[in-house]
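Fill in residues.
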């Protein structure tokens, strides 16, 4: 049987194939899978098919298996991502509450104050390197200082941030 013949068998048995997909777990996706089956057989190279209806059922089943595997992979990836990033419970907003927002703002204010206490050059070096992602050598050129000066300023800034973090964790 040629592809044209396979297409004819598909159209004659469309409802049966749809019921097969729905009964075997496709649920609401049965129509989508049937459409995908149609696209595959219409794009397949022409050639004889000995048992066209059995061929269509096998192809439909293979599509369901492929979709099931893809869904499992997606679910596993999403679950691993959630585990790694600390997901929230369904129905609960990821937006931090008011108290948490106020605490974060206070911590930011304290970090800015700690950096400002180091002087403008160290504060600028830290911001340019850690926030803007600028290389230390480029910062040295920008500020008109040596690379070792930038490195020393960054060490001071890191030390100040570590000390602040320790104080905040102790609270």
């Amino acid at each position: 049987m040629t592809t044209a013949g396979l297409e004819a068998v598909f159209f004659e048995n469309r409802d049966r194939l749809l019921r097969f997909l729905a009964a075997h777990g496709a649920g609401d996706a049965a129509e989508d899978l049937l459409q995908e089956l149609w696209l595959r057989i219409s794009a397949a190279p022409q050639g004889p098919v000995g048992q066209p209806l059995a061929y269509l059922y096998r192809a439909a089943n293979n599509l369901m298996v492929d979709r099931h595997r893809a869904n499992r992979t997606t679910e596993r990836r999403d679950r691993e991502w959630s585990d790694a990033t600390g997901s929230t419970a369904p129905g609960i907003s990821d937006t931090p509450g008011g108290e948490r927002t106020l605490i974060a703002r206070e911590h930011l204010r304290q970090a800015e104050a700690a950096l400002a206490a180091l002087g403008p050059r160290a504060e600028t070096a830290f911001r340019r390197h850690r926030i803007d992602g600028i290389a230390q050598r480029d910062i040295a050129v920008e500020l008109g200082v040596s690379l070792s000066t930038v490195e020393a300023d960054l060490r001071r800034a890191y030390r100040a941030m570590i000390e602040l973090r320790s104080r905040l964790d102790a609270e």
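Residues 52-85 form the longest helix (34 residues).
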